[in-house]
């Protein structure tokens, strides 16, 4: 039997956190936040959920692909943000979808779209359900008769492998691990590892412009999208398989980031990589954050294009098992299937050294150089969502937000965002911790990623977080950043997204949507307000 | 006094071709095409042009920015393709714009748009006028009262330099040389050199997705566009200055390639480069085209990312002063402001050597290694449009077309396109030459660039070329390529463009356009058919 996934939180029910990981972290929290006692919120039980009856009936021709099972409906009610997990823990599933559809063909998807359009039922494309921005959450509005969540899990095949062009055609519902396993047989890898990797899909990555493994050049899935096939209520859009083009505005880039409001991605050709055989890794410490930032800027502009370049602030480093909380840490990596990378790393380290960076010289080992700090980071990175759930059960408010900003603005931006968030934490939670890292680097600026943690007040955590999040988001917009670098917009970021683009672009989105989805049933409230669809 | 530009062809009236260049080329043509005698078409004289009277009057508030001078109208009638130059030489200016407007402010542009929208006059954004795809040509249709060409030459300033982020804000009407001269003062360079560099503008590059200097990674201007400002009849769209974002579909990518049908780009923030101080250059020969192609594929997939990697077929090499017409030549280059590139070139040459590539070892010189072949190529590249005009005056049909295709399809594609073009040349011109080079390389495929030359029949050259071009374009679409990699769509490629995208995408374009340009006056016939705007 397949392992059971939590209906209320991240991942598998039976996943064991690394021993001591949670204890170390809570010790740190006790110490730094002066916490004496944690809450102990019990996990919700599926048999206790009391979902509302579906508000409409499914026609017989769609009955076989639609489920009204409590587990299906509950686990398609939310994504995986703090807001989602907390509401799940509280057993709040009032706005669960009325049905979950599991189509196996495009014809079935089109039939669902026809039914929903005719009956005014909102239809929400659902990949892995790992959204942290309210991207898969049903409308609460009375204007729809109800909601169907459209789960793409049966679109899970690798359809074609073109080794000469290093490209693969895949169905969009395939999950990260299945994709990598299938590619491995051909010596290939997409090498796109969002933190959600295990429980997210290619289609989800494309429509949310997910951020992956590569710290430079191939920061988003966008770069790997060679062509796309999308089913919309108005028909199918298929783009041509091309390595590059200058014919009109990019069709693929229009669908990247469309978040299910135009249609459902069913297939894509992806650009993949050879498996890297040469790797260089080094962890560099700086005695000030500013020096680390400057090293990142110079490396980002050097043309060396490291695959890995994560700058971690002292406190965040500490909480991830990197260093003692005094140094800023830069995790640097290069990888290639084609050539030794000694020269690349040598030059990157020269840049660091000139700025006072220092590091331990490592022994070369038979299986290639390892970097314990980088390994610790990776382990911590993948387990983070599991640990987050545990912390939420302890009554903690724990969440991340992320952005991008040009180098010239970074100092003022970072100070502005950090202090606005700290002030809001102080006001609404009596204090808390804000840490930062850079997840991706561009020649013209970094993508800062903030982690927030605070002790919540019993039963009020959602309200508290929403106030802090609003303060942080307002600051991001005020100081010139983007409301999201790779988490997407969803419902949660929509009001801030609207502030960062021209009203002219809102008209563009509305006009495109009207063409694809004349009845306005697809993922309402995402990217555009529900009112905008009238 | 400023040098006078030709109103009928490329560049300055008084530009001198390098001595012997034309003679060598015509000797080659005589030999390979068996030409005994060339035509001698006289250049048209401005005083002999008999343009139609403007079909409407300009309101007094716009009078000071509009010209009905014959020279202005004539030089805004066409772009710079073979079709354009040939018609210019023949003195065919029947469909010249009624006026040319030279606005200095966005307010004036908006006033022009209001006037044209109210009066049903088509308005054509005009940068350098270097389109080779009918991108700036007035409508012949009766449905418009007339045409105004909107020349952006007064928007020619560098407005802001952000050295930390290596970004500059420029007005969109600035020409290539003025931009580079302005950047040089800051030690910066855009390093985007389309063949039209001297007579094209930033705004033109953006809306046509121009292809530049870099053979890999930064192949199109798209990569350098950080933010854009566009004036449309419905108002102004301004995107945020960001190094990267995941908020909704890319706003910049929607305007890249919009070819003036949504609005006029007035400003952009561009990502620029440090001036390179380290350069490696080498010219490698292969005894077969196939081996050269395979070397390109391996280099494109190696992650070395050369700045230059042009593969030139034997005959094309010969006509550009590279080699004896027996070898396929690969011009390879690396450049950096940050580090020595010996290791990079070493590895690229290893790849070539394993495929039988060979080269002359060069002496290192004080000013850095030079590469005579690369220099010859550069000289030939920049003078090519001038020489093309001379050849057209001699009655020759001479033109290029370009595309991109994935590696798995390349062999069949190239054979298909080349033989269809050859067959059409045989049928319509009694024969001719087709040569190829790769201008840009992607991990998943090359961008092949074809040059066609044939002896025309007096007075019939346009008709002959149109038949050949149609055959070539049909083959490009049939064998899976794109109708353009970096020349854009314009009016000329519109019927083929329509075949390469879904009808769903046509609806997208129409819906976006309706929002920006409700009266349908902007650059009609480009990207969309004029009928599509009804």
Summarize the structure in words.
The structure is a homodimer of 534-residue chains. With 534 residues, chain A is an alpha+beta fold. Chain A is built from 16 helices and 17 strands. Chain A has helices at residues 21-33, 60-63, 70-75, 82-89, 106-119, 176-184, 202-208, 251-255, 289-300, 314-319, 342-354, 372-393, 407-429, 461-478, 494-500, 503-516; strands at residues 66-67, 99-101, 122-126, 147-151, 158-162, 167-171, 188-189, 225-232, 235-238, 264-271, 273-274, 278-286, 308-312, 328-336, 396-402, 433-442, 445-455. In chain A, the strands form four sheets. A six-stranded antiparallel β-sheet of chain A has the order 12-14-13-16-17-15, sandwiched between helices. In chain A, helix 4 (82-89) runs antiparallel to helix 14. Chain A is globular and about 70 Å long.
Counted beta strands of chain A? 17
Low-confidence regions of chain A = none
Sheet-strand content of chain A, in percent, reads 15-25%
Total helices of chain A: the number is: 16
Strand order of the largest sheet of chain A: 12-14-13-16-17-15
By secondary-structure content and strand pairing, the structural class of chain A works out as: alpha+beta
What does the radius of gyration of chain A come to?
23 Å
Main sheet specs of chain A: 6 strands, antiparallel
What's the N-to-C terminus distance of chain A?
Answer: 46 Å
Share of helix among residues of chain A? 25-40%
Mean pLDDT of chain A: 95
Largest interface: A-B, 96 and 96 residues
> Oligomerization state of this entry?
homodimer
Shape of chain A: globular
